[in-house]
Every structure is written in C-alpha cells, then in structure tokens.
Specification:
By secondary structure, the protein is mostly helical. The protein contains 15 helices and ten strands. It has one domain: Glycosyltransferase. A two-stranded antiparallel sheet has the order 1-4. A two-stranded antiparallel sheet has the order 2-3. A hairpin with a 2-residue loop joins strand 7 and strand 8. Helix 3 runs antiparallel to helix 4 and helix 12 packs antiparallel against helix 13.
Length: about 375
C-alpha cells in the first residue's frame, strides 16, 4: 500500500507545475490563473513532510520550485494582495521556514517578514481575534486558526522574540465563544458583532459543526503543541487540544473510524463520511499521541481512521489511484452569498470531489504519522 501511495503522490507532482496544480480543483474548475493560496500551501506542507519521512528529494524539490516561482529575490510574493487581509494567504508561508533552513535562500526570510506584517495590521474583533478576511468583518472561523497561527508561532520561534501570548490568547477566546460543551465540538464560525445573517443573535455562532473546520482547528493545535516550547505557560493549549480530541472522538463512525460532514448528525439523510476532515482528525490524534500530549490510545484511533479512509475512498479509477470523498469547499456568507448560511442543507450541498489538496494534503500528513508510528 505504501508504494501505491508514494506513486500516487508522484503522479500528482508529474502532472503539476507552479502555474497549474492538479490538486487545486477549485482553480481547475474555474479556469483561474495560479496564485498564492492556502490550498497549494497545504500541499507544500505535506510534500515537505513526505520528503522528511521517505528521504525522497522529489517531494521537497517540487515544493522548493513551486515556492521559488512565487517569491522574488526581494521577498515580494507573486499575486499576494495584503490589503485583502485574508488569513488564508498566510498559511502557505509556513513552508518558508523549513525551506530557508534547507537552502539558506534569503528571499524566504524576506517573504516571511512580508506575511508577518499583514498580521501586524490584521483587523481584530473587540476581543482581540483576527478577522478571517476583510470581507468578513468581526468574524472568526475555525479555518483561520490553522491558516494563521502555526505561521505566527513559527515566525516567533525562528525570527521573532518567542512571544506566543497573542496566539494563545486567540485560542482561549475561540474556546470561550465557539465551544459547545454538551457536544464536545466547536461551531464553524463566530461573529463578534452578532450581525451576520448566519450568526445566532445571542451567541454569535453559526448553526452547525462542520467537520473540516473542526479538523483545521485540531491540526492547528497539534502543530502548535510541537512548535511551542514545553512549560506550564502552554499547559492550557495542550488541555484545549486534548479536550477537542476527546469531544471529536465521541462522533466517529464505529465501523470505519471516519467522521461525518456535519459531525453530530451521522446517518441523517444526505450526510456522508468525509475524507479531508477525517484525515485531519486522524493526523491530530496520531501526532498528539506521538508528542505525548494525548494518551497513547489515540494513536490506535488515528490509525483506524486512516485505514478507514484507505478502504472507503482510496481506489483505482481510470487505471490510476485516486482519493475521493472530499468536500470541495464550504464557508459562511458573505452577505452577497446567502446560500452559505451554515445550515445542514448547505453543508451537504457542496460538491464532493477526488484528489483535491484539502483532502490529499492531510491524508499525506496522516500517512507520514503512520510511518513514524511504525518506525
């Protein structure tokens, strides 16, 4: 199986260039030109992890060539528009730190500083959390915690002063406002102004528990547990992570180990076991157990989910290995798009695709943790 997965990823690389990546299904479908974006950023993170765990330089070579196409010698980033204050655009910057360590290219350090300046100016809610994007005023999405906070922490670790208090404070606020203790789950979005059409007027939260948003948050916390130093000041981060994983574990499908697109409504008509969020939760469980933040039993739980994904959604079609069951995209609003209202009906209506990086990348990260587990 491992050889097949390696061959699958190498096929995706062969069919891709920086100007056109086959795993960015949104751009492929829309015919949009290449841009600096989180989808490809997730894949670059996964490829660097694959290079580390397999020793095959083809993965890191592609990641380096991809990033080099976007970043000029002065650190300017092709197509990047900081005035949009889009947290999604920060995510790809996390690969700059390992690439800088590998190559010593000064332009990576300069590009990281450029992205860091966006965070300095990023609008915030009155509680202190980053807005998800300029077009989503006062809104915090779980997605955004993954998009911004690991980069923010890596910058502090490698180029900053090692002050993680802002990251930790924003996570605390998410726990305070977006967590449902009865379900053990987090709502997808929160509007601090409580004026968005999808927001509960009392809590500010969206209606439902979308799997991939919870997955994004889980991966962010798992990665932060590795980035931040140990010590009592970070115990709260680890506690929030452990609480999240215990809550999510309650909702796994007992047969496959996968999780439902709308997490707490398994078996409801239209709901389905989804690949990307399941991979993210499995990765977080495996990594958390490896780091000693989660009990060792979570390694077995994560491995069960990974095996379930392989059995259910990794298959030969058209003579090639493909990964299916991936929700293409989901979001909340903006006002001009009221279809994205956070309802159950909305989440199950988005397209389900194969080989999109939002599913492939976390699946590969999960795969690298399985290989670590097996030594």
């Amino acid at each position: 199986m491992y050889e097949k997965i390696d061959a699958y990823v190498q096929r995706l690389i062969r069919e891709s260039t920086p100007e056109y990546t086959v795993w960015n299904i949104e751009k492929v479908r829309q015919g949009k030109p290449a841009s600096w974006n989180y989808i490809d950023g997730c894949m670059m993170t996964a490829l660097l992890a694959m290079a580390e765990i397999t020793g095959n330089p083809r993965y890191s070579d592609f990641a380096e060539s991809y990033i080099d196409w976007f970043i000029a010698e002065d650190g300017a980033i092709r197509s990047y528009e900081p005035e949009k204050f889009n947290l999604d655009d920060i995510n790809e910057g996390r690969v700059l730190f390992p690439l800088y360590e590998m190559t010593g290219k000064e332009k990576y350090r300069k590009a990281a500083r450029l992205l860091r300046r966006q965070l300095e100016e990023q609008p915030r809610t009155f509680e202190g959390n980053f807005w998800h994007k300029a077009i989503y005023p006062n809104q915090v999405w779980l997605d955004g915690l993954y998009m911004a906070q690991p980069f923010y922490a890596l910058y502090e670790k490698h180029l900053g002063t090692g002050d993680y208090s802002d990251t930790l404070g924003q996570i605390e606020k998410v726990r305070e406002h977006m967590y449902d203790p009865a379900k053990g789950l987090y709502y997808h979005g929160y509007d601090a102004s409580r004026t968005a059409f999808w927001a509960d007027p009392e809590t500010g939260c969206s209606q439902n528990f979308w799997l991939r948003s919870i997955g994004w948050f889980a991966v962010a916390l798992a990665d932060l547990c590795e980035i931040l130093p140990g010590g009592a000041e970070n115990d709260r981060l680890r506690a929030i992570f452990a609480e999240l994983m215990a809550g999510a574990d309650r909702w796994s499908d007992p047969e496959t180990g996968l999780y439902w697109q709308v997490v707490d409504q398994g078996g409801r008509e239209g709901n389905y076991l989804e690949t990307s969020g399941s991979s993210m939760l499995a990765y977080a469980m495996l990594k958390g157990a490896r780091l000693g933040v989660l009990d060792k039993e979570y390694a077995a739980k994560g491995e069960k989910t990974f095996r379930g994904i392989v059995d259910k959604y990794l298959s030969f079609t058209d003579g090639e290995l493909n990964l299916g069951g991936i929700c293409l995209v989901a979001g909340l609003g903006p006002e001009s798009n009221r279809r994205r209202d956070g309802s159950y009906e909305y989440y199950i209506s988005e397209p389900v695709v194969q080989n999109d990086a939002k599913g492939v990348a976390p699946f590969l990260l999960c795969y690298t943790e399985i290989k670590r587990l097996e030594g």
